[in-house]
Design a protein that fits this description.
about 85% helix; about 60 residues; single chain; mainly alpha; 4 helices
C-alpha cells in the first residue's frame, strides 16, 4: 500500500510540480481527522475546526498568484 502512495505522490510531482505537490502533505491532518470521525466515531472539537480552517487557508494562500 505504501508503494501506491509513493507512486501517486511521484505522479503528482511530475504533473503539477514539486511545490504544489508538497501542499498535499498539509491536507493529511484534515483527512486523518475526517477518517477518525467516520471510522472511530470520535466527536469533532473546536480545535479540529480551527486547525482545518488554518490549514486550508494556508494552502489557499500559497496557491494564489
Amino acid at each position: 500500500m505504501r508503494e501506491l502512495a509513493y507512486a501517486g505522490f511521484a505522479w503528482l510531482g511530475a504533473r503539477f510540480g514539486s511545490v504544489r505537490t508538497s501542499l498535499v502533505l498539509y491536507v493529511a491532518p484534515i483527512a486523518s481527522a475526517l477518517l477518525s470521525f467516520a471510522i472511530l466515531g470520535e466527536p469533532p472539537t473546536l480545535i479540529h475546526f480551527i486547525g482545518g480552517v488554518l490549514i486550508l487557508g494556508g494552502v489557499w494562500a500559497s496557491l494564489r498568484k
